[in-house]
Amino acid sequence: SPIGDEEDVIYQITSDYEWIEVDGQNFVCLRNSSETDIRTGKISVTQADSECKTIEVFVTQGLGIVTLESFLLSDKDSLSFSALGESETLNITSYRQKKVNGEDVGDPETLDYTLSITGSEFTNDGDTITVSENQSEKKRTGEVYILQSKTNKFLIIPLSQEAAQITYDFVLEVLPTTLSFVGGGETKSFDVTSTKQKLINGIASGSPENVGYLNSISGIGFELSTENDNTVVAESNLSESVREGAVTVIQYESNETIDIPLSQNAKPGIQVTGRFVDQNGIGLAGVKVILADEGIPDGYGNANIKFGEYSSISHGDFIGYLEGLTHALYAAVHETSV
């Protein structure tokens, strides 16, 4: 009869099979990469201190685990197109790799795939995606759907195209580009061309549209007509210097401006001097007239009139002529001295 408690006895495992790896009191079956052969073998367990008592354990290992790993890859995750329209090419990689117990076996197998497009105006020629010019103010979107044969693995590549670039070409012109006025006062008009042309992706679309504008004026003696602000009224210039000013035209929407320089002559400053002399050239009286009007006949400015130059008329007639001339001019003068 057994006496006392059981005691553990040291044992040793051994095996003559290469695919069975022993480590002390443990053993491991190495990977079976065969797809057809089931492995069979055995290990020996020998007990120490028992006259080499041994038992044999038969080991069976199943076939290698075969898997097929498929790959469907694109060099681009998405495609973006300019509004002008363009083409982009996808580089697609499609294959599958056989694996046994997770390790590659043999060369990869190339797999076919199909490519389809969704989204208005997007088309494809093989792996090249093309979109026409977008003249809409809305962004276009679509998708490339790539389906791999045998596996039904798929990829979706988002597509987008920018909205049309809408700009306007503004025109602001005046004619004439300058206005000059006589010293006695004058009214003159000018024409303004103020338009905008719609551009779609830089190309003209439709006809030019009129754009409103605002006129303002600067300069003493100049004003815009209350009836038509494209008309400038210059009052009479009583000074002896040229007046200057400007009409500024501001275009709505663009805020572009253009100036029309204004200028007005000074008062004419025509001087008529006369000297009453007797037959001997002895001076009797003199008159000086400074004229601030225009339209006076030529020949009276800065003229020294002597009786001797009019010998064909009598002294009395000459005096009457000069007095009449003086009185006629007097009505238009702003400064006189005798």
Explained architecture:
This protein has 338 residues and is mainly β. It contains one helix and 31 strands. Strand 4 (39-47) and strand 5 form a beta hairpin.
Residue share in helix: under 10%
For this entry, what is the oligomeric state of its chains?
single chain
With helices defined by DSSP (H or I, 4 residues minimum), what is the helix count? 1
Per the principal axes of the C-alpha atoms, what is the gross shape? rod-shaped
Main sheet: strands, sense, barrel: 4 strands, antiparallel
N-end to C-end Cα span: 173 Å
Overall mean confidence score, pLDDT: 82
Binned strand content: over 45%
Radius of gyration: 56 Å
Q: Quick one: how many beta strands?
A: 31
The computed structural class is: mainly beta
- The unreliable regions are 270-278, 284-313, 330-338
Summarize the structure.
The protein has 338 residues and is mainly beta. The protein has 1 helix and 31 strands. The strands form 9 sheets. Strands 6, 9, 10 and 11 form a 4-stranded antiparallel sheet that branches.
